[in-house]
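$ ./design --mode recover --in tokens.txt
reading tokens...
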């Protein structure tokens, strides 16, 4: 398991019980470089608990990682008072993610009045940052956006 550094902190979902699987997955956010065009980065380690029978990160964990990274981008860069919800999630699995950590890199692509579209690349940091999955998430905006 990768230890948190000043550049990484555990992903927090304070509204969920401590026993919820999202906490047990030990996802963490990584500081995004200023001016990089990246809106959020979330990582998870590849462990015996998160792999499938073939030794790769389980597809459902990849989907959860994409959803969490995209949601982090929306939460931190759109700013909502009443929240948002995943409306659609499309994933293209390109290669098995075997080494880890798995890193989801989220970029806002479209911010509209009622929805936000986020693109997420998932790479295997232990395999030369090999691209393993592409995700597109659409979030419905449920409340009023805060003025900047």
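writing sequence...
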């Amino acid at each position: 398991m990768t230890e948190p550094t000043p550049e990484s902190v555990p992903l927090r979902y304070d509204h969920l019980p401590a026993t919820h699987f999202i906490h047990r997955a030990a996802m963490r956010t990584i500081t995004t470089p200023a001016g990089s065009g990246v809106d959020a980065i979330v990582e998870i380690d590849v462990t015996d608990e998160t792999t499938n029978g073939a030794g790769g990160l389980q597809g459902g964990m990849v989907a959860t990682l994409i959803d969490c990274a995209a949601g982090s981008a929306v939460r931190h860069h759109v700013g909502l008072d009443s929240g948002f919800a995943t409306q659609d999630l499309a994933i293209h699995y390109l290669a098995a993610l075997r080494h880890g950590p798995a890193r989801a890199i989220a970029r806002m692509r479209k911010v509209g009045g009622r929805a936000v579209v986020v693109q997420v690349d998932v790479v295997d940091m232990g395999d030369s940052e090999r691209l393993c999955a592409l995700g597109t998430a659409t979030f419905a905006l449920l409340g009023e956006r805060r003025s900047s």
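exit 0
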